[in-house]
Each structure stands twice: as structure tokens, then as C-alpha cells.
Amino acid sequence: MPKTKQFDETEVLRKARNVFWVKGYNGTSMDELVRATGLSRSSIYDTFGDKHGLFVRSIQLYGQEEREALAKIMQNDFSPKKKIHLLFKGMIGDILEDKDNKGCFIVNIITELSCLDKQVTAMASEEMARSEEALFQWVRQGQAAGEINKSHSARTLARHLQNTIYGLRVTGKAGANRAILEDIAKAALSVLD
Amino acid sequence: MPKTKQFDETEVLRKARNVFWVKGYNGTSMDELVRATGLSRSSIYDTFGDKHGLFVRSIQLYGQEEREALAKIMQNDFSPKKKIHLLFKGMIGDILEDKDNKGCFIVNIITELSCLDKQVTAMASEEMARSEEALFQWVRQGQAAGEINKSHSARTLARHLQNTIYGLRVTGKAGANRAILEDIAKAALSVLD
DNA sequence: ATTTATTTGGAACATTCGTTCCAATAACTT
DNA sequence: AAGTTATTGGAACGAATGTTCCAAATAAAT
User: Fold this and answer.
1) What would the pLDDT profile of A62-91 be if each residue is shown by its tens digit?
2) Rounded to the nearest 5°, which phi and psi values hold at B108?
3) Nearest-angstrom CA–CA distance, B28 and B129
């Protein structure tokens, strides 16, 4: 009987998330979100509650898509070490391709809101833990296969790699070029050899 | 003849900067700045122009104090490599001590505003370049003295160290404890051996 | 085609935002 | 001590903020 929703919720979330990603939470106004999503205020409020609710859903979408992307990399046939190298190469490519220089959504959230919004911070931290876990698994497998150095524990190396990724995200957002980013990755990854 | 300023400009800037540091630029209102600095709106506007001007001056103060702190470390008698280790140890201490979990002012600025404010981004980038230069000098000296590995260039290692510091700042702001931060530093610094 | 339930657009809301203004204040000079 | 001048506090401003509301529109079911 009722009129059905005229928009794809995921598509709207993707558009909203991109605005948040570029401008941050506090830097984004509802006016911009209305313009970016193409739907009206009432539809947004009816569907997502309020600005904060829309932000939370944006993060959830990001997490979901991130998990799917990771799963795709997981199931290729390269060795663990090669996977790590490909992850870094791909990330550097993403950083340089992104004309908006958005950086990492999670890093942006942590630096903007970790003092101000516990709920959102918890969501971001969970995402960080998840990706560290993937790195940890690869390092462990790589060490078992003998292609990754064992002078540091798998946990230590995973933390180091994760930390390097956050650094690259910041360095990249600060305007570093390909040569610099690859230089950093080279040095950081040499710990695995 | 005139009435003189009743406040210490540097002291006011320090208070304002701390608010910006905790809440970000867009997350900070003039009301909060009035409350935090203890002086009135007119005094702020008369002295610093507007909110953005106050922010710019806050960054300049940060840069100045950072430079002084760096100079102090520079002139101790430890070896270059030891200086680097001390820098990391000190930074981890700072991160854990800071009950506000402010993170790094420069990193916060880059992640919040690199898409939105070119002037501020340029100032932050300059600060980043300056600290990379200090690291570069230490690495070069350490390599010359034979205490730092030469399999990577001094520039590469400096970039890697700088990148690790940014990472630590983010990881720390995400709530990591001492064990994790020291683990990361240990792995990252092992590239120097 | 009519009914029904929900979405939708846009006007309107109170609040907060950054900023301006002015009268009152107070310090330095003579 | 008196005059001069910049500082100061607080009221006031328009614009922008996040949010609410309601009449009109619309798609599904009868």
C-alpha cells in the first residue's frame, strides 16, 4: 500500500560518506549533505535520524566495503609476503589517484573526533583492529613459510606495518609524491626481509 | 599615553591552541575560545583579526616552540642514533602522559584541513619538512659514524622515521598503550641497525 | 479509479555561529 | 591630577547551523 523509497540507501550513504571524508564531520553541513545526496531534508532525517546517525551509517558502510576489499585480496594466490607488498603498492596507488586527497577515512575520524565522540571512536578502533588482524595473519603465515624474518614477533611486525600505513596516509595527505611514498614503504617493508 | 594590553599574547595563544588541538578548527567555537583565553571577544578580534587569524598564530606558536624543543635535543652529547631513540622514547612518553589524547597538532591539522585550507596546510607542511630535516641530519651523521646501517639512504631512513612518528601519533590517539607503541618503535627503529 | 500509507519538498524553527559595535574603563604621559 | 587613547566587556547583528513540521505528491493495494 505505501509509497516505496525512491532512492538506494547504500548509494546515498556512499555520497554522504564522501562529503564527510573530504570535509570531516564538523566541517560538513546538512545543506551540503542535502546537495550531495540529492534528496531532501525530510528524507534524510526520516531514514537516518539525524546528522550523527548518517555519519555512523557512513562509517558502517565504509567498514563493510573495506572488509569486502580485504576478502578479495585474501583469496588470491600470492604468498603472504607478496600480499603485503601488493597491499602497500595498491595503497600508494590509491593515495596518488585520489584527486580529492581525502586520506584515510578512519584516520581522519580518529584525529578529528577521538576526543569528542566515543561511539564513533570505538567504531573506528574496531576497524583498525580488523585490518591489523589481517596483517598479523599474513605475517604469521609468511614467517611459517620462511619468507618473513622471525627476529620480531608476528604481532610486532603487524603493528609496525599497520602503523606505517597510517603514516603513509598522513604523509600522502600532506602532499607527498610517489617517490617519497615508495621510499617509505621500501624502508618499512625491509624489516620483513 | 594609551592603555597597554592587559594580557600576555603568547599565553593567550597557548590557551587557544590547546582548544584547537583538542577540538579541531571546525569543532572549536569563538565562545569556547573566549572562555578558554579568559579575554573578551573584542580583545581577541582586535589582537588576532578573526578566528582564522587566531588559528594561524596558534600554529606559528606551535612551530616556534617545536623548534626550540628540537634545538634543545640537538645540543645534548648523545650520539645521533641515541638521539633518535631518545626522540621516540620521549614522544611515546608524551603520548601516554597527555590525558586529553590530543595527538599531534600538525597531523590533526593536515587530516582535518588539507582539503579545505591551503594556507594552513602550507604552514603544517613546512613544519613537517623541518622535522624531517633534523632526522635526516642525525641519520647522516649516524651513518658517517658507522652506527647506522647504510643499506638505505639517509633521506629514505629519515622519511621512514618521520612516517613512523605520524603513525605513532595516530595509533596513540586511537588509544594504544605503552606496550604497543614501544613495539612499533622497536620494529621501525630496527631498520637503522 | 479510489483508497491508503509513506515519502517528499520546502517553509519555518530555535539555536548557535562568527563578527561588529559602542559605551565604559583604565593605564600611560604630561 | 588631569587628559588622552587604546583596551575592554557585553549587547547586538545577520548568517548559518541542525532540526522539525506539514501539506502535497506518489506508488502500491483494493
Assistant:
1) 999 999 988 887 788 899 999 999 999 999
2) -60, -45
3) 27
Q: Same domain for A93 and A170?
A: yes
Instruction: Give the CATH number for residue B56.
Output: 1.10.10.60
Contact A26 B26 (CB under 8 A): yes
A121 neighbors B173 (Cβ within 8 angstroms): no
In the structure, what pLDDT confidence band is assigned to residue B141 with cuts at 50, 70 and 90?
Answer: very high
Q: Are residues A88 and A158 in the same domain?
A: yes
CB distance B191–A191 less than 8 Å? Answer: yes
Chain D bases closer than 7 A to any CB of the protein:
3-12, 16-22, 25-29
Q: Give the mean pLDDT of A21-30.
A: 97
What is the grid cell recorded at A7? 532512492
**Cell numbers describing residue A4:** 516505496
Pick the more confident residue, B74 or B98: B98
ipTM associated with this complex: 0.92
In a domain, B100, yes or no: yes
Burial of A158 (0-12, 13-18, 19+ CB in 10 A): buried
Looking at A51, A69, A87, the residue that finishes a domain is A69
Nearest in space to B167 (alpha carbons), one of A45, A138, A185: A185
Q: What count of CB pairs under 8 Å joins A to B?
A: 154
Structural domain count, chain B? 2
Same domain, B94 and B21: no
Q: Structural domain of residue B179, as residue ranges?
A: 76-193
Give the nearest chain A residue to B157 (CA atoms): A187
